[in-house]
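User: Hey, my collaborator sent me this sequence without any context and asked if I could get a structure. I don't really work with proteins. Can you help?
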Amino acid sequence: MTSSLTMAETEETNFLRVLLQQDPEHIQTWLRMVWAEQQQVPEKFNWLGLAEVSTFRAQELANEESNESHSESFAWAEIATSVYEFLAENNPSFSERYLDSLMGLRAYMIVKFGALPENPGLDIQQIVTWFFDNLHISYQEALIKAADWREALAAKNPEETQKKFDSELEDFRKLRLIKNRLSIIKYLSKSKDFLTNEELNIWISLWEKLP
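Assistant: No problem. I've predicted the 3D structure and written it out in structure-token form, which is a compact way to encode the shape of the chain:
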């Protein structure tokens, strides 16, 4: 039984390795066939591995100087975007993680190449909308809870801190999610095309106060 599982895992790993040896246009074609249910995929295919390698290649090529490298960078970013969106849609428990990774990539590409509203991969407003649509907490509530957590952590009382984690873990998780997403917004602010407004500035100012 163990041998057959190992063999299956090896086949799936090899499939990803061979796929990643192809040029991005070939992989994009393959993905379109998969989305159209015209192409079979190994049962435990490593979708996250494909997304992460594609993200790495997109960012690496974005730092090169040739137009050809930049074209490839956009192609890999498109692959990563498609896969992260697929993962988010089909894995609700981890959708936040996948969308955070996707928006982090978009922010990186915008900082490198500038904003282009007609290109979803370079559209600042998509990132801003994503941030506000996924808050699930008001600014005032976040500010109060952040101060409460800072006080608890500063007390350096492990027993009381653990009790607080046990009883308010969901609140802590929400605050950490906001901080992670604000990190993406803060990175995006490096772009000359990024124009903040009062509401967004208030949230950005909260970043350093979050646990």
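In plain terms: Residues 65 and 77 are 17 Å apart (CA to CA). You can pass these tokens on to your collaborator as they are.
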